[in-house]
Design brief:
Elements lengths: L3 H24 L6 H40 L4 H34 L3 H37 L5 H42 L11 H38 L12 H23 L10 H31 L10 H24 L4 H9 L4 H38 L3 H15 L3 H23 L4 H50 L13 H42 L14 H15 L1 H17 L1 H37 L9 H37 L1 H4 L1
């Protein structure tokens, strides 16, 4: 069992080697004509400039936290793992952005020959992001575990290990919020003036916001999403390790006692088999010849299916190896079933997202038909669809929690710890195939960029037909990945919450005190905390949506000004070019300034409540978990449904492009943009950031 962290580390290196292979493969593809290369370089320059500025701003916050954590908690070396988590998370995001801005024009050029070439190329561009995220996260976690638990053996090894997750969360929070504000300010501003007011197509080269929109796809939906899934993947592995360590009051020198060692390294074993499954699954994706979204989806999802099947087989084998000793454990199959249950529930939540966001199912077609009667009914039907999808997703999570809890008790005995440990490893199962899940998600922004480049480079309309089919599928795959992320967030946050509870008890015992966290809703402090926690996701969503609105307002004014003041721009006079740099600068300034308040809220509020009343903090975390999960599912699926309803109409339904239903659908899509790409995806980070902040600082609250 002691060899498992080393084996997991090797699998992480294999994932990074695969990412390097795919990077080289994508870079060797031809990028197209001079115009396509020039557009690609503009997008690259804007994305690099934004990430440099964003990381510079976030570095100040990271340094402050790196100082505060050891000062407040008294764990001197925790700042090292915190910084490692932050640096690796930022590195994964930057790597993904770099290849995405290379893959976009190359995918456009491949689309000239059809989807058989374009889809695998876009997928491999996304796979660099996927395997960088999974590889760097698992590499960082296993190295931190080996360094502080196995090699140095410090007394506070597991507190140090947990701080890695807070570092990853810090980058994820600001990257997701900042990138989301950037991309939606450009998208909303460009669409409202271009498609609705000026009557020009999406991604038209006359629109000054088009380049900013393309940059936003990369900094928000690639770099931001990568940091998000890095944090989710890291948190899912940290949760069961922390739960075990704090429940048994472990120091590093006690971490080699059976059966404790099995419980500590089992999550890494699951991550290892999931990584191998994802690596093999990534080679199963082929292009095919059809431009039908359903056929393309079948090709793209083949990789995920292969990865899941291999992970299920590997988990059963690992379960038998780990828990087959009848003297130490009861039924060996319990915890493997918890993991498999988590994997299946994650797939199920993704399927719910597909049903509610794909135009092959009734919800999106219903929204498109409602566009016949104007924007109001379009918005109402999208809100309704998003809300209904919450019911289905919550039902799946409830089933997943029950299966995972039961499985944990089967292996570890009829105890609360066994059940909660089962829930914790179910989250690992849900994200075990992160490498291929993120690959499928990051494929979407590359396909979107490819369509924009086809339009701006004025290629044959047949090329845009191929890229539009790829892009429509990308909206659905993005919703599926968000389902995996938010589903795992719910399970991980629950496990981290239990770790927080036992960490408080352990910290109090070290000081010679007796403390038991109360979650009695009849207690006034818990009740107040519960309501405050339920409120924060709504406040957080409001801050991010308002930020998009303010930045989009400035974008709209700038696009209108250029159409008004640059002679021949709106008419498309040859040689007249928009000032795209001005729009890029507006999105950059607006997003960086606006990301600070929501980011600070997630860190400061639990700290303030924790130092005032720990029981209130317990209620606060419970309230935030429930309302944050529901809000995340609602906004992600409603936004995706509006977007694909618009694309369904653009494909020819209900009058097609330029019709009144199309204009109504554009309004619905504009409402949905900050839902699905800014506020919604930030929810799963929010609930985990607040929980892991509470866990890291638990000893200071007592």
């Amino acid at each position: 069992m002691q060899a498992i962290p080393y084996i997991a580390l090797v699998s992480a290196l294999a994932a990074l080697a695969l990412a390097a292979f795919f990077f080289k493969d994508v870079s060797s593809a031809p990028p197209g004509n001079e115009r396509m290369v020039a557009i690609m370089k503009q997008i690259q320059a804007g994305a690099r400039a934004f990430l440099r500025q964003e990381y510079t701003w976030v570095a100040g916050f990271v340094v402050i936290m790196a100082v505060l954590i050891p000062v407040i908690t008294g764990v001197a070396l925790s700042f090292l793992s915190y910084l490692l988590g932050a640096v690796l998370s930022a590195g994964a995001g930057y790597a993904g952005m770099t290849v995405a801005t290379r893959a976009n024009a190359r995918t456009t050029n491949a689309a000239i020959d059809g989807p058989a070439k374009a889809l695998p190329l876009a997928f491999r561009g996304g796979a660099v992001m996927g395997f960088s995220v999974a590889g760097l996260s698992l590499l960082g976690l296993t190295f931190t575990y080996l360094l502080f638990v196995e090699w140095i053996g410090t007394d506070d090894a597991f507190e140090i290990f947990t701080a890695f997750g807070l570092g990853a969360s810090s980058i994820a929070l600001f990257s997701r919020v900042g990138g989301g504000i950037y991309t939606k300010a450009a998208d909303v501003g460009g669409d409202l003036v271009g498609k609705v007011e000026a009557g020009i197509p999406e991604d038209d080269p006359r629109n000054p916001a088009t380049i900013a929109d393309a940059v936003g796809d990369n900094v928000g939906d690639v770099a931001g999403m990568g940091a998000d899934l890095f944090e989710s993947y890291s948190g899912s592995i940290i949760a069961p390790v922390a739960l075990t360590a704090f429940s048994f009051g472990l120091a590093a020198d006690a971490a080699d006692q059976e059966p404790i060692v099995q419980l500590l390294v089992f999550p890494m074993a699951v991550a290892f088999v999931g990584m191998i499954g994802a690596i093999i699954g990534s080679f199963a994706v082929r292009g095919g010849t059809s431009t039908e979204v359903k056929a393309l989806a079948k090709q793209l999802h083949r990789g995920t299916t292969v990865a899941m099947i291999l992970t299920v087989i590997g988990t059963l084998i690992m379960g038998r190896v780990f828990f087959g000793d009848a003297d130490l454990f009861e039924a060996w199959y319990g915890l493997p079933l918890s993991v498999i249950g988590g994997l299946i529930v994650g797939w199920g939540i993704g399927k719910v997202a597909e049903i509610w966001t794909s135009d092959h199912f009734p919800p999106v077609r219903r929204i498109a038909s409602q566009a016949e009667t104007g924007p109001a009914t379009t918005v109402l039907s999208g809100v309704s669809a998003g809300m209904v999808s919450v019911a289905a997703s919550v039902g799946l999570i409830a089933v997943g929690v029950l299966i995972a809890y039961w499985g944990g008790q089967q292996t570890l005995g009829d105890t609360t710890f066994g059940g909660v440990y089962g829930i914790a490893v179910a989250a690992v199962g849900m994200l075990a195939t992160t490498g291929v899940v993120v690959s499928v998600d990051a494929y979407g922004p590359i396909a979107d960029n490819a369509g924009g480049i086809a339009e701006m480079a004025e290629l044959d309309p047949s090329v845009r037909e191929v890229t539009d089919a790829l892009d429509s599928l990308g909206n659905t795959t993005a919703a599926i990945a968000k389902g995996f992320a938010v589903g795992s967030a719910a399970l991980t946050a629950l496990a981290l919450f239990k770790s927080f509870e036992v960490a408080l008890t352990s910290a109090a015992a070290e000081k010679g005190e007796l403390f038991v966290l109360s979650l009695d809703v009849g207690s006034v402090d818990v009740f107040i905390g519960l309501f405050l926690g339920a409120m924060v996701p709504f406040l957080f969503a409001a801050l991010t949506i308002d930020a998009v609105g303010r930045a989009a307002n400035k974008m709209i004014e700038e696009v209108r000004r250029q159409f008004r003041e640059i002679p021949g721009l709106r008419e498309g006079t040859p040689g007249v070019e928009p000032d795209s740099a001005a729009c890029v600068a507006i999105s950059t300034r607006g997003s960086l300034r606006e990301m600070l308040a929501p980011g600070a809220l997630a860190v400061v509020v639990p700290l303030v409540i924790g130092f005032i009343d720990v029981d209130a903090l317990g209620g606060f975390l419970a309230g935030a978990l429930v309302s944050g999960f529901a809000l995340a599912i609602f906004m992600a699926n409603a936004g995706g449904a509006w977007d694909n309803a618009k694309k369904y109409i653009e494909a020819g339904a209900h009058g097609g492009k330029g019709s009144d239903p199309h204009k109504a659908a554009v309004v619905g899509d504009t409402v949905g943009d900050p839902f699905k790409d800014t506020a919604g995806p930030s929810m799963n980070i929010l609930i985990k950031v607040m929980t892991i902040v509470s866990l890291v600082f638990a000893s200071a609250f007592v």
